[in-house]
């Protein structure tokens, strides 16, 4: 779908921005309060919410060296890797963030009456597709704000962008994520999902 949008923008001489974002420390950064919020928003039965809250409130850790061991510390963020419910909880939490952001801009105009939703996501990879530069910047700002609110962040080093103006790749247009300018796919190619 994304590749088709890019090809259509080139052949129809349209404007299109595609921004690929990667979440830093995806599973390890999801706040437990975000999990509870997503469970409520998706109407998970209260008995399950309480069970999961009890499960996550028991997450503790400590560090040891040859000469010192810390006290146990309660963890307020992170989903256990390998736990069968973790992928579901992660997707639910990300979906809450994406739903909060999606109203920031309209769908990308692909010409000929075709449009595409602005946000596409798979696990910790999110793609923004906009047909106007100001909308792309607005969506990036909104996602950055939401990630900050959740105490999560995108990884600028793994994020990339592609801007097409009147059907041609535009290297002059760049975007920032987490206050860092990101390279374009031409400057630093990277395989993405």
Question: How would you describe this structure to a colleague?
Answer:
This is Reverse transcriptase. Keywords: Nucleotidyltransferase, RNA-directed DNA polymerase, Transferase. The structure is a single chain. The protein is built from six helices and eleven strands. With 193 residues, the protein is an alpha+beta fold. The strands form four sheets. The protein has a five-stranded antiparallel sheet, with helices on both faces. A two-stranded antiparallel ribbon has the order 2-3. The protein has a two-stranded antiparallel ribbon with strand order 4-5.
Secondary-structure topology with pairs:
Elements (H helix, E strand, L loop, with lengths): L1 H10 L4 E7 L3 H4 L2 H10 L4 H12 L2 E2 L11 E2 L11 H17 L5 E2 L5 E2 L2 E4 L2 E6 L2 H17 L10 E6 L2 E2 L6 E2 L2 E2 L12
Antiparallel strand pairs: 1-7, 1-8, 2-3, 4-5, 6-7, 8-9, 10-11
Features:
single chain; 193 residues; alpha+beta; 5-stranded antiparallel beta sheet; two-stranded antiparallel sheet; 6 helices; elongated
Summarize the structure.
The protein has 193 residues and is an alpha+beta fold. The protein has helices spanning 2-11, 26-29, 32-41, 46-57, 86-102, 133-149, and strands at residues 16-22, 60-61, 73-74, 108-109, 115-116, 119-122, 125-130, 160-165, 168-169, 176-177, 180-181.
């Amino acid at each position: 779908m994304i590749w088709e949008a890019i090809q259509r923008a080139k052949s129809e001489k349209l404007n299109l921005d595609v921004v690929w974002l990667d979440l830093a420390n995806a599973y390890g950064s999801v706040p437990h309060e975000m999990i509870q919020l997503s469970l409520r928003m998706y109407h998970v039965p209260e008995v399950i919410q309480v069970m999961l809250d009890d499960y996550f409130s028991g997450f503790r850790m400590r560090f040891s060296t040859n000469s010192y061991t810390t006290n146990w510390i309660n963890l307020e963020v992170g989903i256990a890797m390998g736990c069968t419910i973790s992928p579901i909880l992660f997707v639910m939490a990300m979906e809450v963030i994406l739903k909060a952001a999606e109203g920031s801009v309209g769908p990308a105009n692909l010409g000929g009456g075709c449009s595409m939703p602005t946000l596409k996501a798979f696990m910790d990879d999110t793609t923004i597709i906009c047909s106007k530069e100001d909308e792309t910047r607005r969506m990036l700002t909104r996602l950055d704000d939401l990630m900050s609110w959740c105490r999560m962040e995108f990884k600028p080093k793994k994020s990339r962008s592609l801007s097409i103006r009147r059907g041609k790749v535009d290297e002059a247009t760049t975007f920032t994520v987490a206050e860092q300018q990101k390279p374009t796919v031409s400057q630093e190619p990277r395989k993405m999902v």
